[in-house]
């Protein structure tokens, strides 16, 4: 794999005086982003670049922590945005999209500083139109990565699992942002460094040389591009906090909102989006438009923070539970479905619902045992028992185990809706 410089930029502008004052130096080094495959000496390169340039290292964890502070989402949940597998609840909650919006804002705010090295998955959130960013990728052939993993004490089987998992996550992440299924494609970067054929010192020397090139110099134009990026990120985050998921761009204070999901009352949505965006400081005008995804079959839904965002229905009566899910959807409450206790516990481990509506009598693991295990492992999940066969003794056991409510079939849908909202209020109070 030869070393590649993906492209060159011709325009060269001198940094404005205000930027010189911020840095206190004669020249401002370009922002460097580094995206790497695991076992490609990324940590060694990061440390050597910091030592060589004196730039501040912005890690993936730092951006995630800042994004969590900007949102009502935990750091662990925000990190799930990097995973190939998406939560079964995400189509209801848009939690992945909200996480990305807050990470984008975190990155945009950091770019107001100079002399930065940004690493990890969030490096891809910096748009291509910001020209003073040198985008670097370090990657190697599988054989080299296996050897690096084994040198660190990891056996080959585990190394293979970790590399495959890393590459799948990287591919899904890059495709979601750039539409490119190859996370190591040289069109995504200015430099792709083959670590199997390049030492850390050689890699660092090349990055430093290219970072000082006029092609990626700080300029008036790139400073304005950062301002546009920051305003768009602020608007996107403001919209996401109100439950909306749209594409936001900005040019000199003029904001464009692109709706890519079908919606029944388009004009009403456009009015809502415009009203929210106009409240963001720095916004001059707001324009809405329909994107190419608008004509697909999916229906746009605003995320409702007043109702439980992740409801799991657990019942072996398939027709009943599917009908119940549809009736809840008519009341703007979306839910996922499991038909047995074991499947429900797997979903709890992987996706952690907010509220579970649980039948008692099921084949295999019964409802009481599911309740006991859920409350032992994830006590924050509120469990509503909904059964047609329970006794007073069952009710006593369930309430002692921590059930939120105990309801009987056939259930009044308004009563169930009210109970779900009360459970959601309890969850929100505990999260304060």
Automatic annotation (TrEMBL):
Name of the protein in question: Response regulator receiver domain protein
4-aspartylphosphate carried by residues: 359
One of the GO biological process terms: phosphorelay signal transduction system
Classification via Pfam families: Cytidylate_kin2, Response_reg
InterPro entries: Bact_response_regulator (IPR050595), CheY-like_superfamily (IPR011006), P-loop_NTPase (IPR027417), Sig_transdc_resp-reg_receiver (IPR001789)
PROSITE patterns noted in UniProt: RESPONSE_REGULATORY
Signal peptide: none
Keywords tagged on the record: Phosphoprotein, Two-component regulatory system
Ranges of residues in domain Response regulatory: 310-424
Upper lineage: Bacteria, Pseudomonadati, Thermodesulfobacteriota, Desulfobacteria, Desulfobacterales
């Amino acid at each position: 794999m030869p070393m590649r410089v993906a492209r060159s930029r011709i325009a060269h502008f001198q940094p404005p005086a205000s930027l010189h004052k911020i840095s206190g130096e004669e020249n401002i080094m370009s922002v460097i982003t580094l995206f790497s495959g695991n076992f490609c000496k990324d940590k060694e390169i990061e440390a050597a670049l910091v030592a060589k340039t004196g730039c501040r290292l912005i890690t993936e964890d730092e951006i995630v922590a800042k994004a969590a502070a900007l949102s009502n989402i935990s750091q662990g949940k925000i990190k799930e945005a990097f995973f190939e597998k998406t939560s079964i609840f995400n189509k209801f909650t848009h939690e992945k999209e909200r996480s990305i919006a807050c990470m984008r804002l975190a990155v945009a705010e950091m770019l107001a500083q100079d002399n930065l090295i940004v690493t990890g998955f969030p490096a891809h959130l910096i748009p291509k139109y910001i020209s003073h960013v040198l985008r670097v990728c370090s990657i190697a052939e599988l054989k080299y990565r296996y050897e690096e993993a084994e040198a660190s004490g990891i056996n080959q089987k585990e190394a293979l699992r970790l590399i495959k998992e890393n590459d799948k996550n990287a591919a899904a992440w890059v495709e979601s942002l750039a539409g490119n299924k190859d996370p190591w494609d040289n069109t995504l970067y200015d430099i792709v460094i083959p670590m199997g054929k390049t030492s850390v010192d050689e890699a660092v020397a090349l990055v430093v040389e290219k970072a000082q090139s006029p092609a990626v110099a700080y300029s008036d134009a790139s400073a304005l591009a950062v301002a546009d990026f920051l305003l768009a990120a602020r608007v996107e985050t403001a919209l996401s906090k109100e439950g909306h998921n749209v594409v936001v761009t900005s040019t000199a204070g003029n904001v464009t909102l692109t709706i890519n999901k079908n919606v029944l009352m388009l004009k009403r949505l456009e009015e809502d989006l415009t009203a929210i965006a106009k409240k963001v400081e720095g916004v001059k005008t707001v324009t809405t438009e329909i994107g190419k995804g608008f004509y697909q079959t999916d229906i746009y839904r605003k995320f409702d923070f007043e109702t439980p965002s992740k409801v799991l229905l657990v019942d072996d009566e398939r027709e009943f539970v599917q009908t119940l899910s549809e009736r809840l959807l008519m009341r703007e409450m979306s839910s996922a479905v499991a038909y047995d206790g074991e499947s429900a516990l797997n979903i709890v481990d992987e996706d952690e619902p907010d509220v579970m509506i649980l039948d008692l009598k099921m084949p295999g693991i019964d409802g009481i045992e599911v309740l006991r295990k859920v409350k032992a492992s994830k006590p924050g999940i509120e469990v509503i028992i909904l059964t047609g066969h329970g006794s007073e003794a069952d009710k006593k056991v369930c309430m002692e185990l921590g059930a939120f409510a105990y309801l009987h079939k056939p259930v009044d849908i308004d009563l169930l809706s009210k109970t779900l909202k009360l459970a959601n209020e309890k969850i929100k109070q505990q999260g304060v």
